[in-house]
Amino acid sequence: MYIDCSEWNREYALREEMVRIGRLMYERGYVVANDGNLSARLDESHVLCTPSGLCKGMMSPDQMIVVDMEGRKVGQVTAANRNLVPTSEVFMHLEAYRQRPDVQAVVHAHPPTTVALSIAGISLANCMLPEVIVNVGLVPTTQYATPASLENVSAIRELIIGHDGIVLQRHGVLTVGRCLLEAYMRLEAIEQIAKITVILEQLGRGEPLPPAQVEKLLEQRRKMGLARPGEEVEFCRICGVCPAQNPSTELSWTREHSSEIDAGDHAELIRVVTQAVLRELGYSG
Questions:
Q1: CATH superfamily, domain at 6-203
Q2: Which of 2, 7, 91, 208 has its CA 20 to 30 A from that of 260?
């Protein structure tokens, strides 16, 4: 009798990796009690996820659950998962997979510094740390939505298309990746910049990287295949890394807007130039 064990072997490896990453999240304090959840894509129709109600630092591989793209529990039932149900955030995970065919893993945790900053209204969408710019990109914050609700699914729907990590206001962090480890490392990077942001707030100082330096990092990001569609608009708006205009466009813009700028008013010049570039890029926000 021939049995193809390759898919099972792959699935079991993912189960073990999910246990390992869950333990890391718990040990680093990114989750407590039964917080957080993880998932990994098995194929186009099935996802492996953590069950609801378990401490992420105390899971076993056979407790993981397979669901279809409607969130229904399918696949092999074991003695360990027979009475378990999928994570209550399963629909948020599934939405990430629907919006991002490139994503193979999703991680959700409640890192305390990041959550605290989201409550304080302090954004992490900035150009402070080179490693975050290259490996994660800009990190936006959603509007508040009730955890484990369809409202929460809607809150991440548009943002996850253009971002590999997002802050869920008053809730936590959602990261995606090509594997569980990559998604987890993005979670670590976001909590790291949150901690540094708190220190900078205490020091009362801290300047973002100059646009020229950010552009070098974005070039690395593009070469690594990590750039997301449309992110250049955000980097222009937030970090000042804007595409250069050709001379004829620049001349016509200068003539058109010269009356808007008082002589020597550099702040106003920057504001008007930024708005004009954003209009050229089709950004109306």
A1: Class II aldolase/adducin N-terminal domain (3.40.225.10)
A2: 208
